[in-house]
């Protein structure tokens, strides 16, 4: 198996294990969601490749763990610099592979990839400390020690950026890494292998095993030689990962689904509310944090719906490489059918559609129209299950207490949006929401210094700043006595 060319960029479709490209006897097909074109046949790993990767990562661990933090940080900065140099290639490959907007990859997503490496490198050297403290004359010293091999399983909706949210802190902590990228979008992970090699990351410190979750992923998370598992994906898959991890008591971090509310109260700036609501269609609705449940106070609902519909129908859907496009296709035919099923069942149950609800007839391929479902039945599937597509629901409420009850009525608790013109009211609403992140009069403002993660079935653990190091490290307290010294 040799390198292939995708959008003018040479990519190796093999695994990356121990600093070398490794083939498999079987492959899987990777198609572009833009036009269905076959992009590559990708090496399909299983238990054999997982064993090779774990051995390589374990062999590399002692040396990498002993590497001075400043040296680890310097290598990570070189990785970030090479990401910057290859920004255009990474952007076009990512767009071709997962259908995300090219302009977004260029302006925001790929710069965030570089930022992830720089941020955690700098946090390691500048911020990761705990002041010594005294207990009855004894001194406590807290340290973050490398834990071992970290297996990272990442999603397809922002493949490289979301992977490096995990890769960067794991490497900074002194762990060695095995990445299992999503099979629907594996290509930029392969490019990252070339980048880490060129940056001087020692062989075996970063490895990539490609393949299906039930094969490669299952073999990795059940391996007794690993020390950490970080998974982003669905609740059902997380349960399988957790069962496998339990056999070896391997610590897990999960970032799972969302069904986040956007609460719009009667004193909200209506233009702002409409703009924030329309943002929930970003990336064709394939955003875990999206506030897909619009909860609008009754008195302003008719005017809000009128303005929102006008703005939503102006969204330009099409080829994500076109700079005028606002949203592109769904990632895969299987996922497209899943979205169709949610909306079709909602219609059969009597839900009203304000607009959308079908394939975009003006386009060839996996383009599902932005959709709004009005006043679905409380507790129905469309308002409790994650659709992960351009499908929003709208429900009305009369009182603030009712809005909180509705917002907290699902099994998820990843994020929430509150839109209000009264700061005290907004902050009170936010304080009552069960969510890992709450945005007030804004959306998708992210800072790696802040904790990120979900409540309830939206996840376990937090990422960002020292929270990431807490997971990827063995946190130690050393207590030093004031007595017994001969010097």
CATH class of the largest domain: Alpha Beta
SS-derived structural category: alpha/beta
| Total tally of structural domains | 2
The CATH superfamily of the largest domain is identified as Aldehyde Dehydrogenase, Chain A, domain 1
Helix content: 25-40%
Order of strands across the widest beta sheet? Answer: 16-17-18-15-14-20-21
- Average pLDDT for all residues: 97
CATH architecture verdict of the largest domain: 3-Layer(aba) Sandwich
**Radius of gyration based on Cα positions:** 23 Å
CATH topology of the largest domain: Aldehyde Dehydrogenase, Chain A, domain 1
Describe the structure.
The protein has 487 residues and is an alpha/beta fold. The protein has 2 domains: 273 residues, Aldehyde Dehydrogenase, Chain A, domain 1; 180 residues, Aldehyde Dehydrogenase, Chain A, domain 2 (3-Layer(aba) Sandwich), CATH 3.40.309.10. The chain is built from 15 helices and 24 strands. α2 packs antiparallel against α4 and α3 crosses α4. The N and C termini lie far apart (64 Å). The model has no long low-confidence stretch (mean pLDDT 97).
């Amino acid at each position: 198996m040799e390198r292939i060319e995708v959008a003018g960029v040479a990519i190796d479709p093999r695994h990356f294990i121990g600093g070398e490209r490794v083939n498999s006897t079987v492959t899987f097909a990777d198609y572009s969601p833009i036009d269905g074109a076959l992009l590559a046949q990708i090496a399909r790993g299983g238990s054999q490749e997982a064993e090779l990767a774990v051995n390589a990562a374990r062999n590399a661990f002692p040396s990498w763990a002993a590497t001075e933090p400043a040296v680890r940080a310097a290598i990570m900065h070189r990785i970030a610099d090479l990401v910057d140099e290859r920004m255009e290639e990474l952007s076009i490959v990512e767009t071709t592979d997962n259908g995300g907007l090219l302009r977004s990859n260029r302006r925001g997503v790929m710069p965030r990839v570089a930022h992830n490496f720089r941020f955690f490198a700098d946090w390691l050297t500048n911020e990761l400390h705990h002041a010594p403290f005294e207990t009855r004359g004894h001194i406590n010293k807290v340290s973050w020690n490398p834990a071992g091999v970290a297996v990272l399983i990442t999603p397809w909706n922002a493949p490289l950026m979301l992977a490096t949210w995990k890769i960067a802190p794991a490497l900074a902590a002194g762990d060695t890494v095995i990445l299992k990228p999503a099979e629907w979008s594996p290509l930029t992970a392969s490019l990252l292998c070339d980048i880490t090699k060129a940056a001087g990351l020692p062989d075996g410190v970063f490895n990539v095993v490609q393949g299906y979750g039930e094969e490669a992923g299952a073999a990795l998370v059940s391996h007794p030689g690993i020390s950490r598992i970080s998974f982003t994906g669905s609740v059902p898959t997380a349960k399988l990962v957790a069962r496998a991890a339990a056999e070896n008591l391997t610590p897990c971090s999960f970032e799972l689904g969302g069904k986040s509310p956007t609460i719009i109260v009667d004193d909200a700036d209506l233009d702002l509310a409409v703009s924030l609501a329309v943002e929930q269609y970003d990336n064709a609705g394939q955003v875990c944090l999206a506030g897909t449940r619009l909860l609008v106070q009754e008195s302003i609902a008719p005017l809000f719906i009128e303005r929102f519909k006008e703005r939503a129908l102006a969204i330009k859907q099409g080829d994500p490489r076109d700079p005028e496009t606002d949203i592109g296709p769904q990632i895969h035919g299987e996922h497209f059918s899943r979205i169709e099923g949610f909306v079709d069942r909602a219609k059969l149950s009597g839900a009203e559609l304000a607009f959308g609800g079908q394939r975009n007839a003006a386009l060839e391929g996996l383009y599902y129209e932005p959709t709004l479902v009005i006043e679905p039945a409380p507790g129905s599937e469309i308002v409790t299950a994650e659709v992960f597509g351009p499908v929003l629901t709208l429900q009305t409420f009369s009182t603030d207490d009712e809005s909180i009850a509705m917002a907290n009525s699902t099994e998820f608790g990843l994020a929430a949006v509150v839109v209000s013109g009264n700061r005290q009211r907004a902050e009170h609403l936010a304080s009552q929401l069960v969510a890992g992140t709450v945005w007030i009069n804004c959306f998708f403002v992210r800072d790696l210094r802040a904790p990120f993660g979900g409540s309830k079935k939206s996840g376990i653990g937090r990422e960002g700043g020292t929270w990431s190091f807490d997971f990827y490290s063995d946190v130690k307290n050393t207590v030093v006595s004031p007595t017994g010294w001969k010097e």
